[in-house]
Write a structure and sequence with these properties.
Length: 189
């Protein structure tokens, strides 16, 4: 079975990493009480972490690693598309060279941490507001009022609209990575 290549932002792996793992964590605090007892408190889910290892081989192996490193140095979150793991908005948090590179072979490892945009929504529900803005009906589309922490990716995910369609419906947004609180985003139905 041939899987689609892994992608992050504008980088496409020439072949998928050989090994990867996905970690789901739940944070739990343990509080000591008198006479040897303790109380455990569930603090909720932590971000998912994807770690893996891969290699580049061939005449341009080191050049390929440098292209991947350039994406790492770019910073900020981006879409991580893995053929097995769900599409995720993630930060590229680690890139390690696992050996001295040779021109024809590079072994590396990496780590991505999923960005979780629902924190502001949960906090807003506790305070009685709406964190992701107001939606208004407008014929065959709706309008989303951008709130703090919103991204075009999160808005597309919330409304179940492909990101490409959301961007096409908003030609006035020149940089999809830069939307401002109070800005109106047209969401196609």
């Amino acid at each position: 079975m041939l899987l689609a290549p892994m992608r992050y932002k504008n980088y496409i792996w020439p072949h998928n990493p050989a090994v990867y793992s996905i970690t789901y964590e739940r944070l739990v605090a343990s509080h000591k009480v008198p006479f040897g007892r303790y109380y455990m408190q569930d603090l909720g889910l932590s971000c998912r972490v994807m770690r893996g290892q891969g290699e580049f081989a061939g005449a341009d192996a080191y050049e390929e690693f440098k292209r991947l490193a350039t994406v790492f140095y770019g910073g900020g979150p981006g879409l991580l598309i893995h053929p097995v793991w769900q599409i995720s908005n993630a930060y590229f948090t680690a890139l390690r060279l696992e050996q001295e590179p040779r021109p024809d072979y590079v072994r590396y490892s990496f780590e991505f941490r999923e960005r979780y945009d629902e924190y502001s929504e949960a906090l807003s529900e506790l305070s009685g507001g709406t964190a992701t803005g107001a939606e208004e009906s407008a014929g065959r589309s709706s309008v989303h009022l951008v709130a703090g922490g919103d991204t075009m990716w999160a808005i597309a995910l919330r409304y179940g609209v492909p990101l490409a369609e959301l961007l096409a419906a908003n030609p006035g947004i020149k940089n999809p990575n830069l939307i401002r609180v109070g800005e109106r985003v047209v969401v196609p139905c």
